[in-house]
UniProtKB/TrEMBL annotation:
Keywords: Hydrolase. This is Alpha/beta hydrolase. Signal peptide: none annotated. Residues 66-282 form the Serine aminopeptidase S33 domain. It comes from Propylenella binzhouense. The lineage of its organism: Bacteria, Pseudomonadati, Pseudomonadota, Alphaproteobacteria, Hyphomicrobiales. One of its GO terms (molecular function) is hydrolase activity. InterPro entries: AB_hydrolase_fold, Carboxylesterase_BioH, Hydrolase_4.
Amino acid sequence: MQDDIRAAIRTEGKEHWTESNGQKLFLWEKPAAQGPARGTILFIHGSSMASQPTFDLQVEGMPEASVMDWFATRGFDTWCFDCRGYGRSYKGEDMLAVISDGAEDARAATDYIMARGGGPFMVYGISSGALRAALFAQRNPDRVTRLALDAMVWTGEGSPTLEQRRKKLDEWRGATRRPVDRAFLLSIFNRDHPGTVEDRFVEPFIAQVLALDDSMPNGTYIDMCANLPVVDPERIEAATIVMRGEYDGIAGMADLLAFFDRLPNADKEFAVMPGIAHASFTQKNFLLVYHILHAFFTRPEPAYRG
């Protein structure tokens, strides 16, 4: 199959269901389009949208808009799931969906996938999904071979977006959920650096997010404004890449470099992504993000460590 930079084919998705803490958890699978599979990737979404619009975005005439299709075309089994509080998973009014809950959901998702013969896992998380992924890797080192943390914060220092968000902390604490609409989703694309978003993705993305949710849980907002740090880099054993968009208003550079410095595994990488703001997979330079991730996930293990 052609390995062109844009090459992707539509692959058939399969829905799966399991439980996390006794509550329903929705999983979405796109298996490798060619075999044998090169490994299993688990994608973990962020605070303000469910998993399918984030990782399996459908845009007419652009199969490469779906990172799951792009990696499935290259021989990876790909999975995502809706954290409880989002999308098609349990959304009861009691579900605040803090970062620790998301790490529990990742554990439940991998229980299910491993029972079907998948894993161990290459894990990618974005924004609060990166915190969920990092905490999952910290708690379950035997399950994660490679860990990709995109648009993450560690302590929150140097984050102008979080500085503004803290002004509403009492509002977030006063309710389990917050409404989301078209205007809010547009603000994600424009708040850091207008012009970075791929225009063809905007309307499909908004439509696919709002088809699943008209509100989002407040747990990750509360954690990121008041409870950081929630992960300890010195307890993350997996090979790790930290990915930071040039214009990202959440991920402070010095904060991430301090996190990176404390990672104990020497197989680690820090990638600065030019021309990219916070939502990496919806940017004009999205293919650059794919290739950074692909290079990291296909890197051979060190033959010598000393």
